[in-house]
Amino acid sequence: MSGAIALEGLRVLELSGLYGAYCGKLFADMGASVTLVETAEGSPMRAKAPFLANEPSPDTSLPFNYFAANKRSVVADLGTEEGQKALFTAASRADLLILSDHPQTAHVDLEALRLANPGLVCTRITPYGTSGPYSGYKGDDLTLMAMGGLLTMAGYPDSAPVVAFGEQGLLAGDQFAAVASLAAVLRAEATGQGEIIDVSIQEAIVMALENAAQTYQLEGKVRKRSASSARAGTGIFPCSDGEVYLLAGGIGETAMWGSFAKWMASEEVTGCELFSDPDWNDLAPGADEAFRAVFLPFAKARTKDQLYQGGKRWGVPIAPMSTAVDLLTNPQLLHRQYFVTAPSGSAIGPVAMPGAPYKFSVSPWALRTAAPGLGEYGNLADLTDLQDVQSHD
Q1: For residue 393, is it within any domain?
Q2: Which listed residue, 78, 153, 157, 289, has the most CB atoms within 10 A of its CB?
Q3: Distance of CA 73 to the CA centre of its chain
Q4: For position 67, what pLDDT does the model report?
């Protein structure tokens, strides 16, 4: 890699479990030296499925190999005097401490660590924050999505709520934590004073509720799931090689329905004159059945890409429902070089994994090292330097 590394020289200690790891990864991928402190049994993330070839081991977890790349691993028992001394020594050299659901969080005294190093930024990521009525509650992605309000807006009113795939609630908390942490680190560099940052994952999820908070504040209305599985022209429809999502009705009706009707007319779709009827109502009884009777034969005779390209030409929002294989061959993602190969030495081999979520020209993102083996850098007590050696080849 050539050129500057954005966060080179920044020293980060990470004590995380099933969440918090993405916060550390965002720093590690931009060049910070991130040291992951694990127990002798290893981070809970090492036990997270799926595993390479469905063979569980501390090194074959695909999530761990993604989240821990560019980090190094040390082990420590923070419940012992030796472990506490090692943590204080390491924290005295660190710029940032990331603390989430590490199995030994009860043994970490943030105030004492900051007394030893006043410039240390300590970021604590918890389900509901460290104060307030829910501070003692546990939480996972599903319950936090519910308590954060997102499930009231996801799915159809006439069906069960739907949770977003991929533990996006936990990742949102990590993203907020990373932004706040970097701002605090910059302030600490300027003033010599660190601080404790308290991140509530629930509050991070609330920030993803579009204009729901403003709707209540300004209009006194509580937003609910507004789409309907019976609304004509909106939803998932089968085609010859999978499915597509179409948004011609509903919120897209005013701007896109006319374009959709013209598209169908240009293809001479049998029965499409129904869509140009001025009395058409996508919520009228029988509208969904009538729509499907016309559109499904047209869609089933075409591929996802043919429908997508047709929608682009006519200004109609229609998108392929992509499989994992589809994403790996997506022209836009290939052009952006989004997917990268796991670094040399990875326990999972040269598999493809997501790359940078952003593009910087002067200080580029890079996968420098593979996820570490458990305790690859020894014990925390034996660690003499938090500054990793970066590669500039």
Answers
A1: no
A2: 78
A3: 23
A4: 96
Same domain for 47 and 73? Answer: yes
Which tens digit of pLDDT belongs to each residue from 39-85?
999 999 999 999 999 999 999 999 999 999 999 999 999 999 999 99
Q: Which of 200, 206, 230 is nearest to 151 (CA)?
A: 206
pTM of the full structure = 0.89
CB atoms within 10 A of CB 164: 16
- What mean pLDDT do residues 199-222 have? 90
Residues 22 and 135 in one domain: yes
CA triple 196-199-201, angle to 5 deg: 165
Separation CA 315–CA 393 (nearest Å): 46
Going by C-beta distance under 8 Å and a sequence separation of 6 or more, which residues neighbour residue 218? none
What are the tokens at 221?
């209305």
Residues 15-50 have pLDDT tens digits of 999 999 999 999 999 999 999 999 999 999 999 999
Query: Domain with 244 in it: what CATH number?
Result: 3.30.1540.10
Q: DSSP letters along 285-341, please?
A: TTHHHHHHHHHHHHHHTS-HHHHHHHHHHHT--EEE---HHHHHT-HHHHHTT-EEE
Task: Please tell me whether residue 257 adopts helix, strand or coil conformation.
Answer: helix
Residue 227: per-residue pLDDT: 60
Domain count, the chain: 2
| CA quadruple 2, 59, 99, 197: dihedral sign | positive
3-state secondary structure of 247: strand
Distance CA 24, CA 72 (A): 11
| One-letter amino acid for residue 70 of the chain | N
95/188 same-domain check: yes
Going 217 to 220 to 222 to 228, the CA torsion angle's sign is negative
Q: Which residues contact 177 (CB under 8 A, 6 or more apart)?
A: 20, 23, 98, 123, 125, 197, 199
What whole-number distance in Å separates Cα of residue 231 and Cα of residue 280?
Answer: 12
> Of 303, 322, 341, which residue sits at a domain end?
322
